[in-house]
UniProtKB/TrEMBL annotation:
One of its GO terms (cellular component) is cytosol. Residues 6-60 form the HTH cro/C1-type domain. This is Transcriptional regulator, XRE family with cupin sensor. Pfam families: Cupin_2, HTH_3. Keywords: DNA-binding. GO terms for molecular function: DNA binding; DNA-binding transcription factor activity. It comes from the Bacteria.
Amino acid sequence: MIGSKIRKIRQEKGLTLNQVANITNFTASYLSQIERNMTEPSISSLRKIAQAFNVPIYFFLSDEDEEEKFFIKTKDRKIMKLPKSNIFYEFLTPMPNEMDWQMKFVSGYFEIKPKKSASKDFFIHKTDEAIIILEGTMELILGEKHYFMEKGDSVYIKENIPHKMINNGNSTVKGIFIISPPVF
């Protein structure tokens, strides 16, 4: 609700109802009714309140649940394991259907156990992908070429290029991927 958002930001900024009333030229009583969701402000009133808090007006009009979807705790990451695959993904960003943002991508964390391939088949998808290695070393096969990647190395893979990740080492490979546009 709009009122709950107004109260939350007012309290975060350490302002009293009387202080906001002085800034906006509204009464503290009117602002209190808005905060308690007893009345809804007009667009012009909401604009004055947004200016008082130095936030865009859409901050108050967006879906209440959406405002926190950008922040993902480690324990709350969505996990995906592909069939016939030795790799799992933890998504670091909201899924595309959860948000209406300008940037259209999915990013995630992955691990490949020692002496395993991410999958027995090559990955091929109609999307570009970037990978960065955080720990370990792995062999990356792009089409016919083989690359050996280690901590800090990154690669950009164009759409429809067959690729395969193989961990020939004795420690788990850990990395981050970004796919755009999202296919998950």
